[in-house]
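Thread: Carboxypeptidase, structure

OP (GT): Posting the sequence first so everyone is looking at the same thing. Length is 264 residues per the record. Can we get the structure tokens written out before standup tomorrow? I want them in the notebook alongside the other entries.
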Amino acid sequence: MASIIFLDSPVCSGFSYARDPKGCDVGDYSSSLQVQRFLNKWFTHHPQYLSNPFYLGGDSYAGKVIPLIATYMSQGTEKRDQPLINLKGYLIGNPITEPKFDKNFQVQGAHGFGIISDQIYEAAMKNCKGNYVNPTNQLCAEVLETVDSLISEIADAHVLYKKCVVAIPEPIDDAIRRKFLLEESIEPNEAPGRPTVDCFTYGYYLAYLWMNNKMTRDALRIKEGTVGEWVRCKKEVPYTQDMPSSIPYHRNLTTRGYRALVYR
């Protein structure tokens, strides 16, 4: 019924790598162009899929650049300088759009989800006058501090989730690290800081164990010597957030008939 291409992007995230460390130094625009080039090459080598309806997808920060990648692809198709990919639209989950834009709707969102009371919401509306990012008076600053305090009590990913530690576990020492990467499986208690089973972040913990399992790496044909350890959130990747907003790209694509699904 459908095929999925899962791409580690930007370079040096997941199992992707660069022979030269400088190759990891990319940003919104450059990494999006790399994704476009990858897809062009993939469809060139697999032309039997060109007629299939094609959708781009991503979540969280990837949701910010997906409209940019879709724009690059649509422009390439119109100019006839790439394979005629049958791009139909895109889907993005919990996407970043524009930091100030997103932040400015937190108050309305928190009120809609019942996180803040009617009284707090009305005080914010009255004293902040639509600007919930840079308060211009003391009363606005105080009510926003209250809003931030209440929001901090819930999980960022979902209001109904239990607030849990975000698991990015690492083996305790080098001996365990080597054992972990070489054995077929390990006992879960060999990685510290794991969340409890009733936390949604427990899946992150399991993903770490599964992705670094030798059988998984062999099945994915990960080249030896390229990526020593899979990490879900690789903070040290030198990535530049150089696209201020994805709103113009959303507007450009949707007004031209491309389908869009934004979900939380």
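GT: Both are above now. Quick notes for whoever picks this up: The chain has three domains: 21-97+244-263, 100-151, 174-219. Residues 28-45 form the longest helix (18 residues).
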